[in-house]
Please model this.
Amino acid sequence: PTRTPSGVNVDACGTLHLPALWERYGTQGEGVAIAVFDSGISPRAKDMPGVIEVINWTDDRTTADHVGHGTRTAGVVGSDHSGCMGVAPGAGLVISKVFNKDTVSFTSWFLEAFNHAMFSGVDVISLSVGGPDWADEVFMSKLDEVLAAGIVVVSAIGNNGPGFGTLNNPADATLVVGVGGVERDGSMAEFSSRGMTLWELHEGYGRVKPDVA
Model:
């Protein structure tokens, strides 16, 4: 249980200039299926009509979010609340609960969620989670399988900054889009983790992360 939820610090309400983004690309995510791996979703979350499925892979007896983190991350992606729209309110959401009420997770729960994501044909996996486990060969092998299946994996790089070499896995993987945090003025948040990528240091100097902030 080495991975932990990475705090969601983005205020999607206005900060990201979403109407301009939607106009530029002509979409709000329609036709795209996004899997959100986190702590589940609150049954009181009524502003996410795009939810297709909610699956519990943990040892909890319910899909409900006892932590709050999963509901928040799902909302940042797919909320259609008029006062605070998500980035892709038109997308379909597949909610995979991989953290229990004690914010504990295991590789096996992630493997089940990854397998389901591939089976159900999602386009994107959103992970606001991370840990220092790039040497978890079973986890990384499954991640490679997911990427080879053409699924875009987006992952928070963690809140362990500002030192170098503090980024979390799986955001440090080469083909994973690692996302850092910024302040409201656009400057890099001090808490946001950053490269170089640790898994490459034994053969080289690593590479710069995050990919986007």
Notes: The mean pLDDT is 89.
